[in-house]
């Protein structure tokens, strides 16, 4: 089984998807095989990895695998990504589209929270890491990921509301996951501070996050860089010369990931 890591924050727009995609890239460059499971109906991770949704085609997505509720159903939805880079062959994707919203209707069904765990059974054995890109919520879609995950990484901005949300995630991981998701060993492994600027407010909030989360704060923090946002919207790997700085930041963050997250 791959080591499964959920990237979470119920605050929107803090950089969860960017972190998932760039850690997948960093890990692949280190020779690791990575599965990205897009658990957000926005489908941003799928798009950033160059997967193209064609409504005219019946494309398999993670929504179907969860709906199937059978062991290993995710095997049938894992696909190559669309990047033109040598290491891209070590990254695979279980994509999402807006249809994933339909799984929300099943949230109240008995044992529905187990369905992603069931779908992944035996399906990610040949990967080193499975990364879940979670939506900005702690409701059903995120809970599916937290029931299937070994580890959690929170992404936050140096912003008071994002840090408050990060604190709520820590409580959820420590108190509710063992009780409600039968996942007593789920562990918070790190907190990534993203889109950091040098303003006084951000510096103050970054220090506050360090006081709250201590050694869980991963180094380096990721600086706010337009080139990183542009590579995301271009569905491109960080190979371009303009991306040298974000590339270096994520290479270092990948080393921190490899130290903090146990291997499978
Ligand atoms: N370090 C950064 N520097 C500049 N732009 C960034 C950075 N991180 C993320 N962005 C941009 O900010 C926007 C939100 O990022 P992203 O989609 O990764 O956040 P998210 O937490 O996944 O959002 P959501 O909650 O909607 O899923 C995107 O346009 C992204 O390109
Ligand atoms: Mg996202």
Characterise the protein shown here.
- 38% of the residues lie in helices and 14% in strands.
- It is of the alpha/beta class and 264 residues long.
- Strands 3-4-2-5-1-6-7 form a seven-stranded mixed beta sheet, with helices on both faces.
- Helix 1 crosses helix 9 (244-260).
- The longest helix has 21 residues, at 160-180.
- Adenosine-5'-triphosphate binds next to helix 1 and helix 8.
Shape designation: globular
Class per helix and strand makeup? alpha/beta
SSE topology string: EHEHHEEHEHEHEHHH
- Which residues sit in consecutive blocks of at least 5 with pLDDT less than 50? none
Mean pLDDT: 97
**What is the tally of helical segments?**
9
What would you give as the CATH superfamily? P-loop containing nucleotide triphosphate hydrolases
CATH fold-level topology: Rossmann fold
Strand content: 5-15%
Helix content: 25-40%
**What's the total number of strands?**
7
Multimer state: single chain
CATH class reads Alpha Beta
Radius of gyration: 17 Å
Topology:
Elements: E1 3-8, H1 16-29, E2 34-38, H2 44-48, H3 62-68, E3 79-80, E4 91-94, H4 115-120, E5 129-133, H5 140-148, E6 151-157, H6 160-180, E7 187-194, H7 200-213, H8 226-233, H9 244-260
Parallel strand pairs: 1-5, 1-6, 2-4, 2-5, 6-7
Antiparallel strand pairs: 3-4
Bound molecules: adenosine-5'-triphosphate (ATP) and magnesium ion.
